[in-house]
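Subject: Sanity check before I submit

Could someone independently write out the structure tokens for this chain? I want to compare against mine line by line before I put it in a report. The sequence has 484 residues.
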Amino acid sequence: MSKRCYKNITAIHRGGNRVAILNFLNDLMWSYILIVVLIGAGLFFSIRSKFVQLSYFGEMFRILGDKAMVSTDGQKGLSSFQAFTISAASRVGTGNIAGVATAIAAGGPGAVFWMWVIAFLGAGSSFVESTLAQIYKVKDRDGFRGGPAYYMEKGLNMRWMGILFAVIITFCFGLVFNSVQSNTISLAFVEAFGMSRVVVGIILAILTAIVIFGGVKRIAHVTQIIVPIMAVIYLAIALYVVIINFTLIPSLFVMIFENAFGIQEMVGGGMGAALMMGIKRGLFSNEAGMGSAPNAAATASVSHPVKQGLIQTLGVFVDTILICSATAFMILLSNDFLSGETGIQLTQTALSSHLGEWATIFVAVAIFLFAYSSVIGNYYYGETNIEFIKESYPALLIYRLAVIGMVLFGALVDLEVVWGMADLFMGIMALINIAAIVLLGNIAFKALTDYKKQRKQGKDPVFYSDSIPGLKGVEGWESRKQSK
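---
Independent answer below. Compare away.
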């Protein structure tokens, strides 16, 4: 048993405080179960798909420009790019700026390497879960909806499992993760402007209410503007920091790799802390295999499910390899990770050491854009899963009010509480979802084979409900007979 785990048990016996309980449960889950499951599943899917995340990397960019298809009744759905931005809005958030800082502070520079590993392997899991979400999507008033709950019911014939997942993701993303986002925004604004956390919380709650009462189309329109702009600006700043510190890059990579394997113990104490924190924060950031991004993937109106599987795989790379690495490099090149600070304040301090005091304000503005887009993306994941359980406006109204309440709550509570809750619930989500996609993975691989065959013939691949022999439970796709 780890020293931290023993300390948490002692703290529970003495006072039963909520942080100690959360830490104990997280240590139990992340130290002994989830690391093996996430790496094992990612490796399995990558091998079975012949490393689709590499072999079809160029194809991902080609598909990104596909226009939304128009249904037979004249309704235009969401394009691949819009679905990509909804999922990116959830992925690209506090995990990229505050989460990376937390991982480095607790696990040392080696945590960055393990973030890269889980992103590369997790890309295989992301492909499978998002392809399955497209195959088993259903029509609704706005176009399509779907996700793990839907493929659990229709693909596995296990509605009970779908309901369990729907409840967990609604609570995890709509409530807990949104409290993490607002918590980070409030801390950043206190650091940059000296604002009251109560005032920041109230402003965030109002802004959230304006968007979530507007529906999925408004979410798509907002995120497709915010996400690309904020990502480009943030990456440009990171690139500038790397350029002005170019001579230090070789030693930076040496430090990351040495600490990743425990060759040189730093900060968190060797390979164990680096591996656990890297995978924890990597999963929080890119969400590969967690079962969240498939909810956005299902909304796209595309000609073949594999297209959206590839698009969401690209999202994992953009999130972790680009944006998380950008944050990590800025922190490690400043040496401020040894200062004892953590979370968003560490990122602000690090960037200030490179660019001056104005950088503290820049990070506060950036985290607001990143985290606010995540709040509205997270909200949608809960909405579509509530509709899976039962289409009920009173239930949706209660959920919307609860989201607004948790945004306010998160802005006020301690950092450790919200991150502990996030780790616990995303771990539970990942275990349920990975069990489902392992059982259904063969369907996704058959869809990939069908896609490859059509591409080799020079066609723009088209999928039908009978493209895979024996496929059942499909509602969102026409058969070949219906299309004629």
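---
OP: Matches mine. For the report I'm noting this point. The CA atoms of residues 78 and 300 lie 5 Å apart.
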